[in-house]
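Page 47, continued from p. 46.
Same chain as before, 413 aa.
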Amino acid sequence: MNIELPHVGESVTEGTISRWLVSPGDRVEKYDPLVEVITDKVNMEVPSPASGTMSNILVEEGETVLMGAVIAEMEVEGEEPDAEAEESPAPGVADAPDIDRIGLLSKDIAPVGPTGSGGVIAPIDGDTPNRRRRYSPAVRRLAERHGIDLTLISGTGIDGRVTRADVQARVNAESRTAASAEPDEERVPLTPVRRAIALNMVRSSTEIPQAWSSVEVDVTHLVRLRKSIKDDFRDREGVNLTYLAFVLHAVAATLRENPLLNSSWGTDAIIMKRRINVGIAVAAPSGLVVPVIRDADRLTIAELAVAVDSLSERARAGKLALEDVQHGTFTVNNTGVLGSVTSRALVNPPQAAILTTEAIIKRPVVIDDAIAIRSIMNVGLTFDHRIVDGAEAGAFTASVKRLLEGIGLDTQV
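Result:
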């Protein structure tokens, strides 16, 4: 039987074979993991659809193919071999340079990095948004082997198609450049995740007119509350009670009061989201990812803390499922954990805004004409100025500030 790269969602249309976990001749049972696959959303393992013996691997590690493409063959007891399949190359993996395939990456969700990874291949050299670049498997293999970004190459083939000769010319040009580089320099090929992040950063900064504002939040009472209950909370819930859980609770409540911030741009309309799904930026080994907490406005502070712990651990272990990174409507980036006191994030397309929380610093402040030492946290909001004006942005950050400063020792967690 043929083993196909499974469809995991309409927004994911291609995957890169990262590592085969079996070899031809291996006996596998149904649901045993066969291969690790990287998509522009998450990494995943593909399970065996049946019990049998692996007979042939058709797609090598490092190759990118469409979802639904045949990637391997398996002998299943009682099943007659498919003679036609044996004679025909698997779709999407033929080596003929004139065979192209189209891989469209969806722009409706964006989980990678603090501004996400919409995964859309940017139009280049006169491409329109509905006409994306096409590459043959042979071209992709050559580019992967040499770490070449195909989106940067102007094709000389029919209809501007990038050919092997175009890629080889780029390789030769970069080799000549590398030969004149300093000996202490090193060329690091882009990973699929890094490339997705880079593409989405360009999309965010070029397509969205972004504005930014910041407020100071006095979180002295929040710090005292957390200090007084964090040990008991850990014993009861089994996870750490972080400041991020309190911020998420305030943000989710504020999004209910300010629904314009929980929307997206639809060219001829603003698309208001009925559910509040808040993404949290997490630093994973492969790059920044943004898992999503669904219906965050319905969760308590304790439930948010548990959700943050679970998603963060799975993100760092590369175990996020596709549903973990879909349908985010707003993003929170906790840059304060890195020691930052002021930062300006890029909006996560197609969302309307992203909020950053900075490190909590003790500072002298004036209260009722007296100087006091208080715990201060800066909160920054970057927003799509097509959707949100300064008044709405100011109302949003003012509400987050009010809720956080209103926390006291009697606040229910």
